[in-house]
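User: Second chain of the day. Same drill as before.
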Amino acid sequence: MPFHDRKSWKAVLNYIKDQQPDEVVNIGDVTDYPQPSRWTEGTKAEFEGGALKDAEYTRRYYCAALRAVYSGPSSLIKSNHGLRPAQYFAKKAPALLDDEHGNPFTEDKLLRLDEWGIDFHEDFYDFAPGWTATHGHLGFSLSRYAGGTAIGAARKIGKSVVCGHTHKAGLISESRGYKGKVETITGLEIGNLMEMNQAAYLKYGAANWQQAFGIVRVDGKKSYPELVMLNGHEFTVNGEKYSA
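Assistant: Same format as last time:
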């Protein structure tokens, strides 16, 4: 946000409202924060003061919209876009930082997550047996292929990984072992819900990104990942069609 695809987000909200999942985890980059970023540094846009305005937008269209249909457990994972305001403040106004109050522009504070009952995870969140969620910007090798970054992270960590960051949608599993002792790890990249034409920094409004979200069904110690692709603001889960 503010570059999200409103119809696609509404369709996902309708699914959440209908299914009432055990938990909703946002993988990060919930707010773009184009000011401040490398795209606007040194330009007029750098001084437009957009970070506070964008945070308010996200509180309204993400936090409030989610809580209007769902009251269960929810989390947000720290991301590189979410770091932008805090990093900018630390770089441009370090004299205003102190040990008692910390940085006032961290994403959890900007979005007032405590008020919405939304947990904030700094790096990894082990949300299901054998699975962790992370945004994907913490030193993992980026792959040009959808799902490649997530499975690479899974190999490195030694457990299945859900991540974002690449804005691609892919699901890849690998099995390893010998003589019946086989272990399978999975990498799930959950795409995005962005309206790419809104992002002026994308040349010609095109990128190898796909709209999608992920579902992980948990049955005891077993977890079953599913990638749900959106097509024209619509998707189908278990034969049920959801749209805005």
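The CA atoms of residues 141 and 152 lie 7 Å apart.

User: Great, on to the next one.
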